[in-house]
């Protein structure tokens, strides 16, 4: 269906404005999908990028090859060749990676609530079902990193829904960690983790289990509340726990399991947890 003239003009103005700010844009047809290849590029006859492995426009001036057609060239966007595009376009999209951006696409209220508890605050844009959280920096794009959460950056496009609100933050480690796929998201078997032996005399120098319990609870909280630099926070927390409780032998495998579970809930892999724990032990000479 042909769009009204004012809607076509709105899409075109938005595309030109984004392009002027260095954001590569492309038009979307109904259903939030890119326009199909033109006849000149059908079946990759143009020698373009059928698998879209590298960014950049197709060699023809039409919007071909999905995200790779995104451009900042106003001459292309406003050209007669693209006139039919704006006549039929349903929306404007952009290539986040091409603008040094990453979009965390939160597709439902539960995902938005999770981001509010877990991720560093940044610029947000309301969507029909949730929000886009936009960060400075690029990473690989991954769908379904958790329930209702997609990451759009390199080799992907995101629908433009307005400038959003808030100050854009640098891409945090917590978002990068979401793209790490692990074969088994469980902490390693107890025998793989070194627990310092009980000191001579067999009694914890802290005298009371409540002291240790508070320490472990505070360590879990510190990891859970980390907004950025999660790798560093986990290591430093492990180091702090071991420096206080590692030499008296009061730590058990159950305590270590709690610390590892808190770290993995923030996106750390089992291997990262084990490495951080081992490095902390080594640094303290335990």
Tell me briefly what this model is.
With 286 residues, the chain is an alpha+beta fold. The chain has helices at 5-20, 74-77, 83-88, 109-118, 173-178, 209-224, 230-245, 253-265, 270-284, and strands spanning 25-29, 33-34, 91-94, 101-106, 123-126, 131-136, 142-146, 149-152, 158-159, 169-170.
Write the layout of secondary structure elements.
Blueprint: H1 5-20, E1 25-29, E2 33-34, H2 74-77, H3 83-88, E3 91-94, E4 101-106, H4 109-118, E5 123-126, E6 131-136, E7 142-146, E8 149-152, E9 158-159, E10 169-170, H5 173-178, H6 209-224, H7 230-245, H8 253-265, H9 270-284
Parallel strand pairs: 6-10
Antiparallel strand pairs: 1-2, 1-3, 3-9, 4-6, 4-8, 5-6, 7-8
Could you tell me the number of beta strands? 10
Q: Approximately how much beta-strand content do the residues carry?
A: 5-15%
Which class best fits the helix and strand makeup?
alpha+beta
Q: What is the residue-averaged pLDDT? A: 80
Provide the helix percentage: 25-40%
Query: Ranges with pLDDT <50 over ≥5 residues?
Result: 47-56, 183-191
Rounded to an integer, what's the Rg over CA atoms? Answer: 25 Å
Give the overall shape, derived from the CA principal axes: elongated
* Tally of DSSP helical segments: 9
Order of helical and strand elements: HEEHHEEHEEEEEEHHHHH
Distance between the termini: 71 Å
Q: How would you characterize the largest beta sheet? A: 6 strands, mixed
């Amino acid at each position: 269906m042909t769009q009204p003239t004012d809607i076509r003009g709105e899409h075109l103005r938005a595309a030109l404005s984004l392009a002027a700010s260095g954001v590569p844009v492309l038009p979307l047809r109904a259903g939030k999908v890119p326009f199909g290849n033109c006849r000149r590029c059908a079946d990759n006859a143009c020698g373009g990028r059928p698998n879209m492995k590298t960014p950049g426009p197709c060699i023809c001036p039409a919007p071909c090859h999905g995200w790779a057609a995104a451009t900042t060239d106003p001459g292309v966007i406003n050209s007669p060749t693209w006139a039919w595009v704006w006549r039929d376009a349903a929306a404007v999209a952009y290539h986040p990676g091409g603008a040094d951006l990453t979009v965390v696409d939160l597709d439902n209220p539960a995902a938005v609530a999770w981001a509010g508890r877990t991720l560093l605050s940044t610029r947000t844009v309301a969507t029909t079902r949730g929000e886009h959280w936009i960060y400075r920096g690029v990473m690989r794009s991954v769908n379904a990193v958790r329930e209702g959460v997609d990451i759009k950056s390199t080799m992907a496009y995101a629908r433009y829904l307005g400038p959003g609100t808030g100050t854009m933050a640098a891409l945090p480690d917590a978002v990068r960690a979401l793209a790490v796929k692990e074969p088994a998201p469980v902490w390693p078997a107890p025998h793989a983790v070194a627990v310092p032996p009980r000191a001579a005399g067999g009694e914890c120098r802290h005298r009371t289990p409540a002291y240790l319990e508070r320490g472990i609870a505070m360590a879990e909280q510190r990891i859970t509340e980390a907004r950025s630099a999660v790798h560093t926070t986990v290591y430093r927390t492990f180091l702090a726990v071991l420096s206080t409780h590692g030499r008296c032998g009061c730590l058990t495998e159950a305590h270590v399991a709690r610390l590892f579970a808190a770290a993995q809930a923030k996106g750390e892999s089992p291997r990262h947890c084990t490495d951080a724990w081992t490095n902390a032990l080594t640094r303290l000479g335990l």
